[in-house]
Amino acid sequence: MGLYVLFLFLLLTHVHGAYVSRVGRSRRASGCDLYQGSWVRDGSYPLYETASCPFVETEFDCQKNGRPDKDYLKYRWQPSGCNLPRFDGRDFLLKIKGKRVMFVGDSLSLNQWQSLTCMLHTAMPQAKYTSVRIGDLSKFTFPMYNASIMFFRNAFLVDITSEKIGRVLKLDSIESSKLWKGMDAVIFNSWHWWLHTGRKQPWDFIQEGNNIYKDMDRLVAYGKALNTWARWIDSNVDPTKTLVFFQGVSPDHAGLSTSGAGPNCGGQTEPLPKYPSGQHPAELVLEKVLRTMSTPVHLLNVTGLSQLRIDGHPSVYGHGGHGYMDCSHWCLAGVPDTWNQLLHAAVIQN
Ligand SMILES: *[C@@H]1O[C@H](CO)[C@@H](O)[C@H](O)[C@H]1NC(C)=O
Ligand SMILES: *[C@@H]1O[C@H](CO)[C@@H](O)[C@H](O)[C@H]1NC(C)=O
């Protein structure tokens, strides 16, 4: 009996160990880095018709909102050294049979979660699904597979609490972790909200230890919060039970240079051949924190490949033609489908 348990344990750790690659080691033994490559036109894309995905949020459904061009739907990510497997919804569902997968983060997580649920539903239209939202938690299930794919809206990962002085962003408190504890796979993301000021900033003070600040350099605050997250993961996650992913910083195209100058995503119909500046500053902070961790975390290193997709945002076709320029989210079908192909590849390869 004891031996049998030991054998099972070894088998499980071996299987899970094989799924995970450490940050900085996202290259496979063959030397192929799936995140290095280029966008190529492919007539067989998109992977699904958005009209066949009944639960997609209108704000991502650019065609329905009147976007006149369609070329942005026709690009496939081609890694330089190998091929990215075409998404196989049935295989993905079999992989997550009996499992709970959760996306945790802001509306860019919502974007990727919706893309994944659309990809799975359109691949398996006959499979019954349920979709419920309670507060910040959205839960999508395939009862036949006993599989759930959840989205927990949580922009900072660390907590915001209401206190006498006002709303306090607590850089070293992470109580909402109880929602993702025990999941089979979690895909985290946080960045965009760290930049908000004025009415869009959902806190009045920042607290670290016993110190309260009116404000702080946002990249520094982001790094501190990520550290709190990293220490929580290292002390609470059993890597033989939970696969941990981090969705890399999703770039916006509100202006090409860091100062916000240059063209935005409005009217863009083609990817950029190359991106003018180097790695995103938030990406550098994130990678630095990931390197300090003992838990294997797979970085979905999508920043660079998404930086090229200036054509992939809703622009004015995001909010039902209200004229608001959205260069942060992504049209669906679109760029997040590629992130999910990479997620699938990370689960089946290595
Ligand atoms: C369904 O999956 C959950 C975990 O996600 C598990 O606890 C439960 O036993 C499973 N039910 C069946 C009928 O397999
Ligand atoms: C992520 O991709 C960028 C290029 O876009 C590269 O410079 C960086 O080293 C990659 N990070 C990791 C951890 O592989």
Automatic annotation (TrEMBL):
Keywords: Membrane, Signal, Signal-anchor, Transmembrane, Transmembrane helix
Ranges for domain Trichome birefringence-like C-terminal: 84-345
InterPro entries, per the entry: TBL, TBL_C, TBL_N
Pfam families given in the database record: PC-Esterase, PMR5N
Superkingdom: Eukaryota
Compartments, record wording: Membrane
Annotated GO MF terms: O-acetyltransferase activity
Signal peptide: 1-17
A GO cellular component annotation in the UniProt record: Golgi apparatus
Domain Trichome birefringence-like N-terminal residue range list: 31-83
Topology versus the membrane: Single-pass membrane protein
Family assignment from sequence similarity: Belongs to the PC-esterase family. TBL subfamily.
Name of the protein this chain belongs to: Trichome birefringence-like N-terminal domain-containing protein
Organism this protein belongs to: Escallonia rubra
